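In the current project phase, work has continued on tokenised descriptions of protein folds. One protein thus recorded appears below exactly as we store it.

——
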Amino acid sequence: MSIKIISVAKHLPKYVRKTKDIIPYVKNWVKGQEERFQRKVIKMFEGAGVDKRYSIMDIDDVFFNSSFEEKNNIYMKEITKLAEESLKKSLKKVILKPTDIDYIITVSCTGIMIPSVDAYLINNLKMKHDIIRLPVTEMGCVAGVSGIIYAKNFLKSNPNKRAAVVSVEAPTATFQLEDFSMSNIVSAAIFGDGASCVILSSYDEDIGPKVIDESMYHFYNSIDIMGFKLVNTGLEMILDKKVPETISNHFSKIIYHFLKRNSLKIEDINHLIFHPGGKKIVNTVENLFKSFGKNIDDTKEVLKLYGNMSSATVLYVLEIFMDKNIQKGDKGLMLSFGPGFTAQRILLEW
């Protein structure tokens, strides 16, 4: 029995702004700071590799000093809509109904809601009464890949079942108006909001790339380089400048060992499906793969068009590959990083 990814579909919030149109708001935000600092912040936004981003809030509301409660209420309302639309789109691509899903995993780290968003999806779409739920909340950017790993392990033990992984994120809701730290500024410069849904199947007749292998790699002594801190004003970003260097130092353990256990080398991988964490991380990974003649052009394009949407972003890259006419036998490597610090990988074969 093989586990396949049969559908991927995204959905975006209604608000969208080009970075050049956000700059005036940023200038007004930092106008009380030292002039050199102001110039540095603007340069960071202009050089982030993000041309535009989508948001669950209008930009005037983003730069309004609202409370954590107010922002989280918007988060709850809007991500439920985004999650539902992405799930419906993914189902439509493969002519399935909500009741055809046996296992639902919802992924989000940019707000707090109990019941989790999967409960709302089950009610709104009248999914199965006995559907199995798994909300994943604290895995950050890596959780899109994590969700696929969890779904694959469920389906491996359950033939003739289907699983939906719904990733929905709104980093805009975590922006801290009174925080002028580099972590808050970098995250504001690179992040956007969005949702994506992946459907996996253990039915023989369903078509899509097979999940050949999956693995998580956890870094020691790096627990404090990425994540969120809960403060009175919401979720405060933790993003250390050591992240690209940490990835580079562990590259051989992350990639070589995983491929070797599948009797493969990097040269055998046809497609790289990499999470665009930000320009510096993208450049680091691109340089590591470049010597092998590999590119991550689709990853860079997703960052440019949407920004980093945390866990959902790698699924936007995956959708690009799902929509291509890829040759039978081609292999793809999904790769993402997140809090912990952790790297997670999935090997696909078309």
The domain at 210-349 is CATH 3.40.47.10 (Peroxisomal Thiolase; Chain A, domain 1). The chain has a mean pLDDT of 95. The two ends are 15 Å apart (CA to CA).
